[in-house]
Recover the amino acids of this structure.
């Protein structure tokens, strides 16, 4: 993936639902943008603070004339969504990364179950459009608090795959709520499951699919519930210099290294995006991320230093 930043223009900024906007981004000269695949996201460099935030592309991957983002205004976030909702305007020029994908749509299976919670609809909406173009069998279940907070309802209702989508609103009666165990437990062998949304929703889906082949379950976390009650201090050695740095129990590796002038790119700071992934040469890793697979964690050769920790001394390839 290219590390060169793209300058794009905000062609439109639309209120999609209560607390949710969409941004349409285009090339200022009218050229096509780099191609992307279903499930991709881009890094957005926030114009005022310079912070980096990641947002999924929800439009059809065949559309290279624009990128479409859906962004929830979250007052409890680290400020990225608030800045975009408040400061970014139609016509503005902003910097973004090339698209990258950590939530790949495996296109070989014949049946797919897409489960979205809230703003987790964004990557799954791109997948639904791709699956429809491939003629695949799929159903998309979209769960949200109520209809007023449900983004892209009209787009979905007017789409060619509207008959494959079911809406589930918390305030609309028990009969239409999603029965996760029943849905997940009654899928034919070979079906693939994709889920994105709040951690509690995703945990419920993944628990219901505990008997599935793990390779058929695909997930992407947007936010997670963090618990650092049992964190302890440890040491990090910088392999290129031999410098040993203490990491206190209440600080992350990336925070402390930044203070020492050693910068590691970060975005989510919760271990869900993979931006900060760093090679480990030696050491016992305490993985606390939601990005690496279990085999990758067992291998012990990479760490997400924005959240994961260590026991003893960790030697990093920096």
């Amino acid at each position: 993936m290219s590390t060169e930043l793209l300058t794009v223009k905000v062609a439109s900024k639309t209120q999609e639902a209560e607390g949710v906007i969409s941004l349409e981004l285009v090339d200022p000269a009218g050229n096509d943008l780099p191609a992307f695949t279903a499930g991709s996201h881009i890094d957005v460099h926030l114009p005022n603070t310079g912070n980096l935030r990641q947002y999924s592309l929800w439009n059809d991957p065949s559309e290279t004339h624009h990128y479409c983002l859906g962004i929830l205004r979250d007052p409890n976030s680290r400020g990225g969504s608030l800045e975009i909702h408040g400061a970014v305007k139609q016509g503005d020029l902003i910097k973004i990364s090339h698209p990258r994908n950590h939530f790949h749509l495996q296109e070989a299976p014949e049946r797919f179950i897409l489960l979205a919670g809230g703003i987790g609809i964004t990557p799954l909406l791109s997948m639904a459009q791709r699956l429809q173009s491939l003629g695949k069998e799929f159903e998309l279940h979209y769960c949200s608090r109520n209809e007023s907070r449900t983004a892209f309802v009209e787009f979905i209702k007017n789409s060619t795959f509207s008959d494959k989508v079911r809406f589930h609103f918390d305030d609309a009666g028990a009969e239409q709520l999603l029965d996760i165990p029943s849905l997940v437990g009654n899928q034919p062998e070979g079906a693939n499951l994709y889920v994105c949304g709040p951690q509690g929703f995703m945990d419920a889906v993944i628990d219901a699919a505990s008997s599935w082949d793990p390779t058929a379950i695909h997930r992407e976390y947007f936010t997670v519930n963090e618990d650092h009650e049992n964190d302890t201090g440890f040491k990090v050695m910088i392999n290129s210099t031999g410098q040993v740095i203490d990491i206190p129990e209440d600080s992350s590796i990336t925070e402390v290294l930044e203070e020492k002038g050693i910068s590691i790119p970060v975005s989510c700071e919760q271990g869900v995006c993979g931006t900060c992934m760093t090679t480990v040469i030696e050491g016992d890793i305490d993985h606390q991320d939601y990005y690496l697979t279990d085999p990758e964690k067992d291998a012990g050769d990479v760490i997400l230093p924005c959240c994961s920790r260590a026991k003893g001394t960790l030697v990093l390839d920096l």
About this structure: Residues 237 and 243 are 6 Å apart (CA to CA). The first strand starts at residue 6 and ends at 17. Residues 121-134 form the longest helix (14 residues). The two ends are 21 Å apart (CA to CA).
